[in-house]
Amino acid sequence: MRNGTVTTFILLGLTDDPELQVLVFIFLFLTYTLSVTGNLTIITLTFVDPHLKTPMYFFLKNFSFLEISFISACIPRYLYSIATGDRVITYNACVIQVFFTDLCGVSEFFLLAAMSYDRYMAICKPLHYVTIMSSSVCRILVICCWMAGLCIIIPPLSLGLNLKFCDSNIIDHFGCDAFPLVKISCSDTWFMEWTVIICAVLTLNMTLTCVVLSYAYIIKTIFRFPSVQQRKKAFSTCSSHMTVVSITYGTCIFIYMNPTSKEKVTINKVVSLLISSISPTLNPFIYTLRNNQVKKAFEDSIKRIALLSIK
Q1: How distant is the alpha carbon of residue 100 from its chain centre?
Q2: pLDDT tens-digit profile of 255-288?
Q3: pTM (predicted TM-score)
Q4: Where do transmembrane segments lie in this chain (predicted)?
C-alpha cells in the first residue's frame, strides 16, 4: 500500500448509532476479556500440569497463542475507536494490522490441519504415536504452520504494498482488511483481488483436505473397535477439535464462497466481527468443557492456589 497522497485511513466501523456503539463496545470488551483469559488459562495449564505434556496439548497451547494474537491484532483498536471516537488509523498501523491478522488467521488453518494429523496418529497408529510425534517433530510442525502462513500472505501483501490511494481514505470496515482496502484504491486491483482469492481458496482446500482425510481414517478406525466404550473414548478425544474445525471453516467458507455476503457489506462486516471475537472466545470453553483432562488440570490448579492462599 504505497504511501502516495494518503497517510491515514478512516475506519467507519459497524454503526454510527451511539446506543448501538455502546452495546458493541460492551459485547466486544466481554468477548475479548473472556478470550484472552480462557486461552491464557489453557497455555498456563499446559505449562504447569505434567499430565498435559503431550503432543495434543502442545498443539492446543500454540493454537491458544494464535487465538490471542489474532484477536489482539484487531479488537483492541476497534474498542479504542468506539471509546474515544478516534477512527483515524495511520498507514503503517493499517499495514501492520493486515499483516498480523492475516498471518495468524492463515496459520490457524495449518495448525488445525496439524492437530488433525496428531489425532490421526494417536487413534490409527497408537503403537508408533510416541515415536513419530516426538517433541522435535511437534515443534517442526508448528514452525511449518507459521512458515506456511507467511508464504501464503506474502504474494497478496507484496502486491498490496504497491497500491495507490488517491480519492478516498475511508475504509468501510471496523479494521484494515484486504477487500475494503482494494475497494478504495485507485490502482488496477484485478490481479491482486484474484491473488487474494486464490491464496484463500488454496489455504482452505489444502488444510481442509488434510482434516477430512485424517478424520475419514479416524472414523474408519473407530468403527473397527470391538467395544462401545472404546469408541466413545476415541470420539471424545476428537470431539473438541472437530467442533472448532466446524466453526472456523464454516464461517470462513461463508465469507469467501457466499456471493451474497460479498454484495452486502454489512453482513460481511458482522460475520468478520463474529470470526474475530466469538470464535476465539468459544474455543477455550469448547476444549475445557469437553475435555476431562483439561478440567481436572484446572481443578487441581485451583486447589493448589487455594492451599497456598490458606498457608
Answers
A1: 11
A2: 655 544 444 556 667 777 777 777 788 777 777 6
A3: 0.86
A4: 20-48, 60-83, 89-115, 127-155, 194-218, 239-258, 270-289
